[in-house]
Amino acid sequence: MCNKSTKTILLSSFIFLHIFIISCDNDSTQSSNIIPEEIDSSVVKLNGLLTVSGNKIVNKNNKPVSFAGNSFFWSNDNWGGEKFYNASTVKWLKRDWNTKIVRAAMGVEDSGGYLENQQANKLRIRTIVESAIDEGIYVIIDWHSHHAENHIEEAKIFFQEMAQDYGEYENIIYEIYNEPLDVSWSEVVKPYALEVIEVIRSIDPDNLIIVGSPEWSQRIDLAAQDPITTFANIAYTLHFYTVYHQDWLRERATAALDSGIAIFISEWGSIGYSIIDLEVNKWMSWCHLNKVSHVNWSVNDKEEEWSIVVPGASVLGQWQESDLTAAGKLAKNIISNWPD
Ligand code: MG
């Protein structure tokens, strides 16, 4: 997500949770506070390597799958979100939120990012990746950039290292470009992607790779018109924030699916249980219908509407309900009740 901060007055309501659960899960008796002990203990063991088949992402049994989880905030030094990059938070999200997938968001260009401090940022990413492997959940290694085409050699070196160290694990998903800005898909983003994918595929032949599209990963239509065909297991990133992205983006995404590409929502944000946020149910119904995975932005306590915890909440998980923001409560209910 671009680094915006707006204040929104939030009104709590559980009405939408009930609508969501009824629409997505016949077994609606499960409370978010009651997670069966074994439900999330081996999602990767059960599903194995994720691959693209037609416009779906399927598990090792060729069954289309949709998983729900959490994205960490930018990894940059001193941006505030980096303090949550620890094994304890991953463990808590798995145990208390039933999260099946986490996303480690490597900040690249901006202050305190990878280009300024490779060692610290890479250590944060590795911490989340290795914790997710330990917990048996999926993990996205995200090159969290708006200008990745300007630093392609750095991206190639980074993903080469990630593929060498983690490519053997079924847990791993590579996201090679978070949100391109207003640049050409065919002339800028796709050529960048082909170069980075070639490096990854020379080491890791099989793990899923997801690719962003122009205009903050909303121009999924451009990727659909000119998809990557020289490599297998490629899906395309779609991001939505309910305050900005409504029917028009779902229609665009549906058309992209109809054209045959697979979609992965590596970021979404809501404004919590507000009466004006009916959009989140529409999006979740869309994800459920189309078997699309989705990852919530973000694990942070910054004062913005998308943070899942309030300022000062523990950086090690162990959150009470009172530690969650309105957006955090909504995200927790969606993620912890998401049907496999
Ligand atoms: Mg592999």
Explained architecture:
- The chain has a single domain, classed as Glycosidases (TIM Barrel).
- The chain is globular, with a radius of gyration of 18 Å.
- The chain starts with 14 loop residues before the first helix and ends with a helix.
- Helix 9 links the parallel strand 8 (234-241) and strand 9 (263-269).
- Helix 1 runs parallel beside helix 10 (279-290) and helix 5 packs parallel to helix 6.
- By secondary structure, it is of the alpha/beta class.
- The strands form two sheets. It has an eight-stranded parallel β-barrel, surrounded by five helices. Strands 1-2 form a two-stranded antiparallel ribbon.
- The chain has eleven helices and ten strands.
Please sum up the structure shown.
This protein is an alpha/beta fold. The chain has helices spanning 15-24, 43-47, 87-97, 118-135, 152-166, 185-203, 214-217, 220-225, 247-259, 279-290, 326-336, and strands spanning 51-53, 56-58, 68-74, 101-107, 138-144, 172-175, 209-211, 234-241, 263-269, 294-299.
Structural class determined from secondary elements? alpha/beta
Uncertain regions: pLDDT < 50 for 5+ in a row? 2-40
Annotation field: number of helices: 11
The number of distinct β-strands equals 10
User: What profile does the largest beta sheet have?
Assistant: 8 strands, parallel, barrel
- Ligand inventory: magnesium ion
Please give the order of strands in the largest beta sheet. Answer: 3-4-5-6-7-8-9-10
The rounded Rg comes to 18 Å
State the helical fraction: 25-40%
H/E series, N to C? HHEEEHEHEHEHEHHEHEHEH
Residue-averaged pLDDT: 90
Our estimate of the beta-strand percent is 15-25%
Termini separation: 26 Å
CATH architectural name: Alpha-Beta Barrel
CATH topology: TIM Barrel
